[in-house]
Amino acid sequence: MASRPQLGKSQRTRLRIAETAHALFERHGFDAVTMEQIAIEADVVRGTLYNHFPVKEAVLVEWMHLRLAEDLAPLIGQVMTQRSFSARISTLLDASALWWEQHRQYAAAYLRFRFQQLKQGEAGQTSSDMAAAYAALIAKAQEVDEVRVDESAIRLANYLHFLILYALMTWLESPTASLRDELAHAFEFFMLGAKPR
């Protein structure tokens, strides 16, 4: 990951912990790594670690969101060259499928933790940039009447985001499922309700 000199001390600590934890997960497997190992390797006291992350799944989510933000930035330019909303989202979802296939070993733990956050009303605490990206693309589509305008772009983006999470769960449950196909199906279903009225 690129260096981020503009980050404050707390953010640098979170970044160091997340990157250290990821290296441990890669070396030993996610399930085998403990919070104590993460604290030792990241050179932080346990209290500091737990102050930033209550469980190792939270550390994983932090790392994945940082990685996703870095990988998403150059993709947005490619997405915006597409002429229609459907083509833009399809380009984004195809890239997402490849990204998740590269990180499949973490997908189940990621999804479990994200849904646990929703259950506890904490979803915004470790948010990825994907929902914001969907909202921006939907808002642009609303301007040219490709997507209905009687719902906010943010609300529609949340619907799309949850359909995509469901597609990920389906893919994880079936070893023969194609994530690209599951995401395309989720988007097709979204568009049934999102078309202009």
UniProtKB/TrEMBL annotation:
Residues 11-71 form the HTH tetR-type domain. One of its GO terms (molecular function) is DNA-binding transcription factor activity. Residues 34-53 bind DNA. Keywords: DNA-binding, Transcription, Transcription regulation. It comes from the Bacteria. This is TetR family transcriptional regulator.
